Amino acid sequence: METFNSSFGQFNLSRYPKRKREQLRAWDAADEYLLKHLEEEGLSPENKSVLVVNDQFGGLAIPLSKYSPMVISDSWLAHRGITANAQDNTIDPSTITLCSSLDYPEGAFDLVLLKIPKSLAMLEDQLIRLRPLLSTSTIVVAAGMVKSIHTSTLKLFEKYLGPTKTSLAYKKARLIFPQLDLKKERAPSPYPSQYKLENTPYQIINHAGVFSRDSLDIGTRFLLQHLPKDNRYEKIIDLGCGNGVVGLMAAEFNPDASIHFVDESFMAVASAKENFEAAFGDQKDAIFEATDCLTGIARNSANLILNNPPFHQQNAVGDFIAKQMFRESFRVLCNKGELWVIGNRHLGYHLALKKIFGNCETVASNKKFVILKATKH
To answer: Distance between CA 117 and CA 209 in Å, rounded?
Structure first.
């Protein structure tokens, strides 16, 4: 936990989940810059309806909590982190209204504060969804680190909101100021997008925040070629499910199994649900859950876990999420249950799996990827 000295007060903030020897902060310079701008420009949120988009762990929502902001995020972790940080600062969490990226409110807001997401598609989707929530008096300020703001970023603001300018850089952060032109014709949303899953009859639906939205990524393609089939697999978990392609095909190969789709992205879980129901209707059992890795899932409850670990948690890159997934998979698997992992060869996942499970074997490999299997004994 570190102390955040903001323009709206001093707060103790942590990333979520809390980890020993955490090297990363729960806020960034873009949060600092945006709050500093509000103070210096006299843009008090007092008596204003405030909407915050893409706050990670409360760097904006916690300092502005006394103004009862509404927060929209695609991240289950962000929601949990904001709530935890509110409690750590003796703030009533109910003063902050949390919404998913598919659950936008109605009505106009006076002040909209938007952190630039990593994905351009996600930004486009958010600008489209924000448009009905703006009035001629709404003030919109976006913020991001300089490395995340490109010409393409600004073009999206101009396309959907109006003429746009940027601030000078401050601690490698920058602000974006769109001048609202609500007379602009509203362009139709290109989301969700879809593609046909090769060698199947399935059309795969993908909301804007989903990884590899326009086509099947090559790692998943390789895993699908080697998915296990065995009537021992009564309960299968698609961990970090994304659009649910792996779990969908696992259900086809193991027709008597129930499938549990898990991801920390609300859009990913929604995509997986839509794809599974489009493929099977109510003919197969499935659970769809947004959570952190396998948080909340019962010990010894799965026979097979299929996992393509992500490289990043929001903007933080590393293997810590993969290792957390492996540890939690060991807890959730039944005796003789199996964890199948697809990853780039150079990542060395076999070392972590051997340490946790005591064993690891290679199912298949090519020049880029390796599929590993670890069994719980």
So the answer is: 9
How many Å separate Cα 102 from the centre of its chain?
12
CB contact at 8 A, 166 and 149: yes
Residue type, 344: N
Residues 145-199: tens digit of each pLDDT: 999 999 999 999 999 999 999 999 999 999 999 999 999 888 889 999 999 999 9
- Tell me the C-alpha distance between 332 and 340, whole Å: 14
Rounded to whole angstroms, the Cα distance separating 370 from 356 reads: 18
Per residue in 47-102, pLDDT (tens digit) is 999 999 999 999 999 999 999 999 999 999 999 999 999 999 999 999 999 999 99
Spatial distance between the Cα atoms of 362 and 38, rounded to a whole number of angstroms = 55
CB 357 within 8 A of CB 376: yes
Q: Return the H-helix or E-strand segment holding 335.
A: strand 333-344
| Torsion of Cα atoms, 63 then 5 then 126 then 246, to 10° | -110
CA distance 154 to 208: 18
Instruction: For residues 247 and 262, give the distance between their C-alpha atoms in angstroms, rounded to a whole number.
Output: 10
Count of positions (residues) in the chain: 377
Angle of helix 266-280 relative to helix 245-253, nearest 10 degrees, comes to 30
Question: Using CA atoms, how far apart are residues 22 and 20, in angstroms rounded to an integer?
Answer: 5
Q: 312 pLDDT band (50/70/90 cuts)? A: low
Count of C-beta atoms within a 10 Å radius of residue 57: 26
CA distance 339 to 18: 25
Other residues' Cβ atoms within 10 Å of the Cβ of residue 365 = 13
Angle at 345 between CA 323 and CA 320, to 5 degrees: 20
> What pairing do the DSSP bridges indicate for beta strands 2-6 and 9-13?
antiparallel
Let me know the angle formed at the C-alpha of 43 by 41 and 48, rounded to the nearest 5 degrees.
175
Q: Distance between CA 81 and CA 195 in Å, rounded?
A: 34
